[in-house]
Amino acid sequence: MSVVLLLNGPNLGVLGRREPEIYGTDTLADIEKAVAEEVSARGWEVVSIQREGEGELVSAIHEHHGATVGAIVNPGALMIAGWSLRDALASYEPPWIEVHLSNVWAREQFRHESVIAPLASGVVVGLGAFGYRLAAQALLHLVAGNPAR
């Protein structure tokens, strides 16, 4: 059984009630279910991890090294200065997609640069919870041998 790592950073565990005008009303459980639906046709499973601390996310990446076919990563605000997360993702070999619920470039200036995006196989922003489905579809495509780069 192949496994997709669904990694969510700080404050994403309270989706559905956190600033719904920005992040929508879908919960993290809703998103997990949607990603699982997207990848189930290929027989893949989803391991979902949400942590508030950067070190815990780094540990999750290392723990799943070699055990996953790809990852979907929403680093939350760690996109801005999550250097240890960036370094962990640099050593993660399968394709992975960075996802943000809101359009970070339409928001505050400090959100306009991601330190991890240059390492990602792709980035999906501004499409709400649907962006996770698109990221899952992208992984299905990339793992089938269709490189994005």
From TrEMBL:
Signal peptide: none annotated. InterPro entries: DHquinase_II, DHquinase_II_CS, DHquinase_II_sf. The keyword Heme does not apply. GO terms for molecular function: 3-dehydroquinate dehydratase activity. GO terms for biological process: amino acid biosynthetic process; aromatic amino acid family biosynthetic process; chorismate biosynthetic process; quinate catabolic process. Pathway: Metabolic intermediate biosynthesis; chorismate biosynthesis; chorismate from D-erythrose 4-phosphate and phosphoenolpyruvate: step 3/7. It is an enzyme of class 4 (lyase). Substrate binds at N74, D87, L101, S102, R111. The active site is at Y23, H100. The record marks R18 as: Transition state stabilizer. Keywords: Amino-acid biosynthesis, Aromatic amino acid biosynthesis, Lyase. The keyword Lyase applies. Its EC number is 4.2.1.10. Pfam families: DHquinase_II (PF01220). SUPFAM superfamilies: Type II 3-dehydroquinate dehydratase. It comes from the Bacteria. It catalyses: 3-dehydroquinate = 3-dehydroshikimate + H2O. Catalyzes a trans-dehydration via an enolate intermediate. HAMAP family: AroQ. Belongs to the type-II 3-dehydroquinase family. Homododecamer. This is 3-dehydroquinate dehydratase. The lineage of its organism: Bacteria, Bacillati, Actinomycetota, Actinomycetes, Pseudonocardiales. The gene is aroQ.
